[in-house]
Design goal:
Elements (H helix, E strand, L loop, with lengths): L1 H45 L9 E6 L5 H10 L6 H10 L8 E6 L4 H8 L2 H6 E5 L6 H11 L4 H8 L2 H10 L24 E5 L4 H16 L3 H6 L4 H14 L3 H16 L7 H7 L11 H4 L26 H8 L8 E4 L5 E4 L2 H13 L7
Antiparallel strand pairs: 1-2, 3-4, 5-6
Amino acid sequence: MKDKTEVLEVEVLKKKKLKPIFKLIFSLIGLVLVFGLILIIYYNYSLSPISNSSKIIKYRVENGSSVYKVGRDLESKGIIRSSFAYKIYVKLHNINGYKKGTYTLDKSYSTRRIVSILNGDSYKENGVKITFKEGITIKKIAKEIAKHTNITESEVYSKLEDKKYIDSLINQYWFLTDDIKDKNIYYPLEGYLYPETYMFDEDVKIEDIFKEMLDQTSTHFMKYKSNLENSKYTINQIVALASVIEQEGIYEKDRKGIASVFYNRLNKNMPLGSDVTTYYAFKVDMGSRELTSKEFNTYNPYNTRGPKMNGKIPVGAISNFSDSSLDAALNPLTTDYYYFVADKSGKTHFTKTYEEHKKVIKELKAANNWIGQ
């Protein structure tokens, strides 16, 4: 009996010693659960809207902006509560990048909704995405706007004819001058609406679209501001020249050469002699039909093939254009070329004299490679 009593006492002792350990383990588990619950509550709070009241914010995502940089930027602008919670969220949902563009956000949106908008999901269902390609005219811009929104083409043109509105833009944007109000200019914003893909609300107004495009023009023009303001030509003349270069040069590598031809001609008081300006002058879509001899020889301040245009740049731009065309207009090659012609592949052939120019055209025609055929 004595042995059994001793064994029982040992077992009771062991049980008494184990109880504090279990209490500690349970306490730790409880603490972890409570801490985890607090983290979940804090995480969800951090993703919640920063405001209960609506405040629309236009937010721009630039090329090369990482999702984490966007998060830090959103927090600094007071659009989301926490870039740290945002970072966890985008990692959990495998979001690696956003498309360049301008997005309409609201301070009453949660971080989840904002990420959805930036990721394109919201616009696929409720928004408008419009791509304005390089080299298109106001006429095509108006058609794209009418195609994707409730705004009509006539409303686009009416806004462009609104003198008070144009004056307000001139006061707002450094690159817009009174030159765009010349009575001979068809559309004052031609050449100033930056080609890009934009995202808008479905009830967007034409003023909002123009503002987004002009804001982008301002961003891209800023790197050329010194050149533009110090050129012997006005900003409007440089913009007009860049638009002609865009239309004449299919390949970027040819554009600075084309610019050199135009400047050489201007310096010699020669006409630019560009067919694309004649098409624009007489409101003929390129490729729709051949121009007539009468059109080529009729004066129009856009028509550089017509009379009284020696040493002159078109009165205004004939399309929007890429950065490379603006760069070419401001930084042309130094050459002694006065002529160029493109073949069917788009390659540009430069020559010094009119005789050489005619010879190249003859050779291209013989090879069935002249763009005029």
